[in-house]
Design a protein that fits this description.
eight-stranded parallel barrel, alpha/beta, single chain, globular
Length: about 675
């Protein structure tokens, strides 16, 4: 092993890995050196590598800022220490004796302050498993839709759907027996910026997309009517207009109401105020054509610097406005969750946590010591992205997490779980390893970086326990070894999407083969809808954009799809003849019945499948080539759900959930 390879191993860079086809791949030394240097461990010479290895050894000798333990199990600490003092969250303290290098077990999950000798750390005592559906309901197998909020329409014309439309959708689905509504990420985007509108490229995961807030949900006058738009959302026009509307709402607030809002907002601490300052600065500098904090004048790069403090002091009203926008979005979402529970939903909202954040956004600006820099995250080639993907996002660094006592991860979980009944973790493989690459380079120049899997998942279980909320792990793609078993042990629900649930003979598995601790789904925002798959509309897009497999052509893919239709219809077990490719309705109904009969505790169908639509919200690996995140429903949801065909499809799914799960052969 060369010294460079030893450094890579010490950092957690995986030099040899296996792709989705099972072929062994090896990362080049050039890529390893570039990534190691970007991670803060210079590797451009033998001397630099030796110094980096020495630094890593020093870091390993430091006592941890946070120690994760399991409830009811003895806690291992250095055996040279004989005594410790434990302080619970309520302030109660007690002395603990160390026996054989272990502290006595702590039964109650929670966070404790632990003083060991002269060192004080946080002790996180995690429950055996995440909070699960078995703790929320009486054994029923529940169901619900997944909804892209901006796609919704209401009676009052608006350019895109907002939280008021989501509230209406939750109420209507609760009346039809749904227990959950899964939503797209609602993280904070750049305010009023009509270009960066992907919900998976947020400015911050700690705060909310203010453009989604609905004044009517919190007792304020509703937003004025706007242009309803065509079938595609014109974000470039709509988001600046929405920001202007919100400014008018803020301007018209009664003084005492405004004071109460700002007081409530500032009670959430410095992080929210810092985000409001970022948004105010972004509005200022974006008007000058500057995109993200890294393009701002250098004095504003430091959130605690004199230039930022002076700006905040000189612009109190602008910062107050952005605080109000966050308050409005937070209160709107909390109101929806309250309505969902009042309507009898077991879970209510199932939120979505994006895998990363924009490199020029609020989190990157304010959490610089905790995030990767000079590196972006993505994926090697896999079924969803045959050419590999560079998402142009950053996320936590393993070293930043460790040195901060995992505070950013805990805060991120709490920010979402505090206003939902569950959380879907996007690309949950990132809890174990992430594909990273030097910024500006292709996916081929990347490597896997190992993350502290046990700490991240155990902390997720603890936060799930505290919030009494589900955790769903999006586990589609190339799984790290042992990942599936680990999330099962943690009580996280894996995702079982129809298209990827194949048997050894390449046929589709039956509903009896779906594991109980999972979410059965007809599709996701990244996959073809059932109608789109059955008609081959997804192949139309692939052919148009030159995204067919390199070793194939359209004729061959059509033949393969015809064969797969036969396999899928046989799995559905229908007595009717297989429908023609231009007749997707029977296949959609059968797919809904299929996941309804699955043994999974939870079944979710995208709204697009409940409406038998052909177009999917997003096509992975595209930006402008496909109208990602722009599609709108053709009519208000009230009208769409009232049609006989849609009513029948929803009833089909709901009825299948009430049947005994299909038995294994």
């Amino acid at each position: 092993m060369t010294e460079l390879h030893a450094l890579a191993a010490a950092i957690g860079l995986v030099r040899v890995w296996w792709d989705v086809a099972g072929r062994q791949q090896e990362v080049s030394d050039e890529a390893l050196g570039a990534i190691a240097t970007a991670l803060g461990y210079p590797a451009d010479s033998a001397a630099a590598i030796a110094q980096s290895l020495s630094r890593i050894e020093d870091e390993r000798q430091r006592p941890p800022a946070l120690l994760v333990a399991d409830a009811g199990r003895p806690i291992q600490i250095p055996s040279s220490l004989a005594r410790a003092e434990l302080v619970a969250e309520d302030g109660a303290s007690r002395a603990l004796l160390v026996e054989g290098g272990y502290l006595p077990a702590i039964a109650e999950p929670g966070y404790y302050r632990l003083a060991i000798g002269s060192h004080e750390l946080t002790l996180a005592v995690a429950p055996p498993r995440c909070h699960g559906l078995e703790q929320l309901q009486d054994g029923r197998r529940v169901w619900g839709p997944s909804i892209q909020i901006p796609s919704l329409r209401g009676r009052v014309p608006q350019p895109f759907g907002h939280f008021g439309h989501l509230d209406d959708a939750v109420t209507r689905f609760a009346a039809r027996g749904a227990d959950v509504v899964m939503i797209n990420p609602v993280h904070a985007l750049f305010p009023g910026h009509g270009i960066g509108f992907s919900p998976y490229s947020p400015s911050s995961r700690l705060f909310l997309n203010g453009a989604m807030g609905d004044p009517a949900l919190v007792g304020l006058p509703p937003l004025p009517p706007g242009e309803d738009g065509e079938t595609l959302i014109d974000w470039e026009s709509a988001l600046p207009k929405r920001l202007a509307q919100l400014r008018t709402v803020f301007k018209n607030l009664a003084p005492d109401f405004r004071s109460r809002v700002l007081k409530d907002s500032l009670a959430d601490g410095d992080a929210l105020r810092r985000h409001a300052i970022f948004d105010a600065l972004d509005v200022r500098f974006r008007a000058r054509g500057l995109d993200g904090w890294r393009t701002w004048p250098a004095p504003f790069h430091d959130p605690d610097g004199a230039a930022v403090r002076q700006f905040a002091a000189e612009n109190p009203d602008e910062i107050a406005f952005h605080l109000f926008v966050q308050w409005l979005a937070h209160e709107s979402l909390a109101t929806i969750q309250s309505h969902a529970k009042a309507a009898g939903m077991t879970v209510g909202l199932l939120a979505d946590l994006a895998v990363g954040v924009h490199t020029g956004g609020s989190d990157s600006w304010s959490q610089r010591d905790h995030l990767l820099h000079g590196l972006t995250i993505g994926a090697p080639p896999d079924p969803l992205g045959p050419l590999g993907q560079n998402w142009m996002l950053t996320t936590f660094s393993p070293r930043g997490l460790s040195e901060s006592g995992y505070a950013p991860w805990i805060a991120t979980l709490r920010s979402t779980l505090g206003r939902a009944g569950g959380l879907r973790i996007d690309h949950a493989f990132g809890l174990s390893r992430l594909w990273i690459m030097p910024e500006g380079r292709s996916s081929n120049d990347g490597a896997y970086l190992v993350y502290p899997f046990r700490e991240l998942t155990r902390l997720a279980a603890l936060e799930s326990h505290r919030a009494k909320a589900l955790i769903v792990a999006e586990d589609l793609g190339t799984k790290p070894g042992g990942f599936a078993e680990a999330i099962d042990a943690e009580g996280m629900l894996g995702m079982r999407v129809l298209w990827f649930e194949r048997a050894v003979d390449h046929g589709f598995i039956g509903p009896q083969d779906y594991p109980s601790e999972s979410v059965a789904m007809t599709g996701t925002h990244d996959t073809a809808t059932v109608a789109g798959w059955w008609t081959g509309h997804d192949l139309d897009w692939a052919d148009k954009l030159g995204r067919l497999p390199l070793d194939s052509n359209r004729e061959r893919e059509d033949e393969r799809r015809a064969w797969d239709r036969g396999l899928l219809w046989a799995t559905f077990g229908g007595s009717e003849p297989r429908p023609a490719p231009d007749d997707p309705a029977p296949a959609v109904e059968a797919a809904l019945r299929h996941i309804g009969r699955a043994g999974s505790r939870l079944a979710i169908a995208p709204l697009e499948d409940l409406l038998a639509l052909e177009e999917q919200p997003n096509l992975p690996g595209t930006i402008t080539e496909h109208p990602n995140w722009r599609r709108r429903m053709t009519a208000p949801l009230e009208d769409l759900l009232a049609t006989p065909d849609t009513t029948h499809r929803i009833e089909t799914l709901a009825a299948a959930r009430k049947e005994p799960p299909a038995e294994k052969w």
